[in-house]
Amino acid sequence: MLYYLFEYLESEYQFPGASLFQFITFRAAMAIILSLLISTIYGKRIINFLRKKQMGESIRELGLDGQAQKAGTPTMGGVIIILATLVPVLLLAKLDNIYVILLIVTTLWMGVIGFTDDYLKIKRKDKAGLAGKFKVIGQVVLGLIVGCTMYFHSDITIKEEKVNSDTEQIAITEGQSDFKEAIKSTKTTIPFFKNNEFDYASLIDWINPELTKYAWLIFIPIVIFIVTAVSNGANLTDGIDGLAAGTSAIIVLTLALFAWVSGNIIFSDYLNVMYIPNSGEMTIYIAAFAGALVGFLWYNTFPAQVFMGDTGSLTIGGIIAVIAIAIRKEFLIPILCGIFFIETMSVMMQVSYFKYTRKKYGEGRRIFLMSPLHHHYQKKGIHESKIVARFWIVGIFLAIIAVITLKVR
C-alpha cells in the first residue's frame, strides 16, 4: 500500500524521497527491518496470549534429554512468522504482482492447514492432529494451484534473446530488454551444467512435437510433488529448538539473491541466468519472510519460549518450494534445502529398513538410533544447541554451493 501511496506522491507532487520506493533493494531492506521489529516486539505478546489460552505443546516420551522440561511450551508460534511476513508485504510490495499474490496464497493456505493440525492436537487432545491424508490433500491442492498458475497465467513468462532472421545469429546487447522477447515456457535451470536450461516439454514432445501443448501434464504433477516434499521436509526438520527456523532463514536469504538476480535484466544478462520479468518483486516478500524467521528465532532458540508447530513448519516449506519453482531453481532444492532433504531421507531409510528387516528376520532393525537425523545425534548425547549450530553451519555451506552455481557450470 505504501508503494502505491509514494508512487502517487512522486508522480503528482514530486514528494522528496518518494522515488526510493521504486527501488526493490530499498523496499526489501525496509521489509526485513519491519518484519524483525514485528516478530520481536509483538512476538512476546503473541506468546503470552498462546500461554494464556493454554496452547501448550504435549510432548511424546521419546527418551531424549531435556524433553520433559519442554512440556507446556506454547506452540502455534508460526502465527508470529506469518503475521511478521504479511504485514510488511502488504505495506511495501506491489500487490498486483502475480508472484507476490501466489506467495500470499501459499502462506495463508499452508498456515490454515498447519493451524488446524495444531488446534486439533491441543484443544481436542488428539495427538495425531489433522489426519495425514487431509494434510497431503491440502498440499496437493496448493501444488495444483501453483502449477496451473505458473503454466497458464499470462504474466508468468521468461525472456529470451531474439534471433535475427537474416543471419540466424543471437542479438547480443548489454542487457537491453528490447532484444529479448517474453515467452511462455516450461523451461527451468539445472545447476553445474554449461547449457543449463531444461524444458519439461522435452519429456513429452519427443513422441510428437504437437504434444508440447500438453506439457502441463508433466509440469503440474512435478510442481505438486515439490510443494508436498519440501513442506513435509521442513515439518520433519522442526524437532529441536531453533533448527527449522535458522535453517530456513539461511535458505530464504539465498533465494532472495536468486530472485533479485533473475528479475534484473542487467545482472541476469551478466551472470547468464534466466531472466524472469517481474520476479524481482519476490525479493520484498522473501526479505520480510527472512526477517520474520530471524525474529522468531529470538524466542525459539534454546531453551525455546515458543514452538512454531505445524502452523509454521508447513508454511515455511510451502513458501520455500513456491519461491524455488517461481525463479526456476527447483533443481537446486536438494542442495540448498539439503538439511530438509537429509532429514527426510533419514526417516525414509529408517522406516524402510525397519520394515525390511522385520519381514526378513522377524525383528525390525534400525540404521539410526532414532529418526529424523537430529534425534540420532541427541541419542548419542550431543546437546541440542550444538546439533543446531552444526546443522546451521552445514546449511550455510550448502547455500554457498548453491550461489556458486551462478557461475560454475
| Averaged pLDDT | 87
* Structural class category: mainly alpha
Oligomer: single chain
H-E string:
HHHHHEEEEHHHHHHHHHH
Low-confidence stretches: 163-177
Largest sheet: 2 strands, antiparallel
Strand order of the largest sheet: 1-2
Q: What portion of the residues fall into strands of 2 or more residues? A: under 5%
Task: Name a few traits of the molecule.
two-stranded antiparallel sheet; 3% strand; 4 strands; 409 residues; single chain; 60% helix
Can you describe this structure?
- The protein is mainly alpha-helical and 409 residues long.
- The protein has helices at residues 2-13, 24-52, 78-92, 98-122, 132-152, 202-205, 216-237, 243-262, 265-270, 282-300, 309-326, 333-336, 338-361, 373-379, 384-404, and strands at 158-161, 180-183, 187-189, 197-199.
- The strands form 2 sheets. Strands 1-2 form a two-stranded antiparallel ribbon. The protein has a two-stranded antiparallel sheet with strand order 3-4.
- Strand 3 and strand 4 form a beta hairpin.
- Helix 5 packs across helix 7 (216-237) and helix 7 packs across helix 13.
- Residues 163-177 have low confidence and may be disordered.
